Amino acid sequence: MVIDVHGHVTAPPELYAYKSLLLASRGYHGRGSPGISDERMHAAVKTHLDLLEKVGTDVQFISPRPFQLMHSEAPESIVRWWVEANNDIIGRECKAYPEAFRGVCGLPQGPDIPISASVEELDRCVSDLGFVGSLINPDPTEGTGVMPTLDNEYWYPLYEKMVALDVPGLVHSTACKNPRESYSAHFITEESIAVLNLTKGQSRVFDAFPNLRLIISHGGGSVPYQIGRWRASRFNQMRNNPSLETFDESLRRLYFDTVLYNQESLDFLFRIVGTDRCMFGTENPGSGSAVDPKTGQTLDDLRPVIEGIGWLSAEDARRIFEENARAVFPRFKVAAAV
């Protein structure tokens, strides 16, 4: 079985028209509703389903499209309503196509929204809608301010609920309003910051929550590819504190997806963190849905790219495509392929 842990919802335009109304009114006229019929939902998702079948993906875990989540907008009521609307349409699609989709919920995050709002929405999505994980934005200011880093106790109530519900978090930035960065560049920046704070020598996150499971999107940002710098820093720290674990050991407390779009980077990621810490993800359809003129293939058709890495064993492939996802997302209940 091929399980894609990193996909995003395909929804009809009514959903995004609802977003426009919320932004235009700033919630003055109340919550409202996207008003998406079953017919419109099925029509929107057909192309997505056809694409998954074409590339050989059996199940994809879908979350809201991150750049649409408007975490930095105000008032907080429109952020909550918008996130809930996204999660609701994901829940409907998963119920309609249980053989193809599982839900990963967005959270109502914002610089002035208490973390308790995320805890409540996570509980609703897992307990009521049957979702298997959550999307965590490490920078709800969307490049406009400073938020507590993921090792800060600010996040502990969310981590506690994730452990209690036995669901992982996919660390994935959203939009970016900093004119010096594109939103894609902001993803990589924030994922790198997340890794470095979660793995720093004095971080207590995994001591406090040993069963916490966090997946870093896009292959860990820049960290695996700059690992020499971080190894050197840790070795210097270990001179004064020999009890510290090496940076490589700290890095293996996290998980990583394969949304990288080129074989060289995937090969390097697998060698650095191990195939037991990586799981198949494509974000397909999404940013990588561009055709390489040399091959005629889309960059996000990653299954043959990974299978083309010659040193990977059959066991490595099973881990990447299926077994790691089953271990990290235990609420995903589907029989293994025979």
Tell me briefly what this model is.
The protein has 338 residues and is α/β, with parallel strands linked by helices. Helices cover 43% and strands 9% of the residues.
List strands and helices in order, with pairings.
Blueprint: E1 3-8, H1 13-25, H2 38-55, E2 59-63, H3 76-96, E3 101-105, H4 115-127, E4 133-136, H5 156-165, E5 169-171, H6 183-198, H7 205-208, E6 214-216, H8 227-240, H9 247-251, E7 255-257, H10 263-273, E8 278-279, H11 303-307, H12 314-328
Parallel strand pairs: 1-2, 2-3, 3-4, 4-5, 5-6, 6-7, 7-8
Helix pairs in contact: 1-3, 4-5
End-to-end span in angstroms? 9 Å
Judged by helices, strands and strand pairing, the structural class is alpha/beta
Task: Fill in the CATH topology.
Answer: TIM Barrel
CATH superfamily: Metal-dependent hydrolases
**CATH A-level architecture:** Alpha-Beta Barrel
Question: CATH class, anyone?
Answer: Alpha Beta
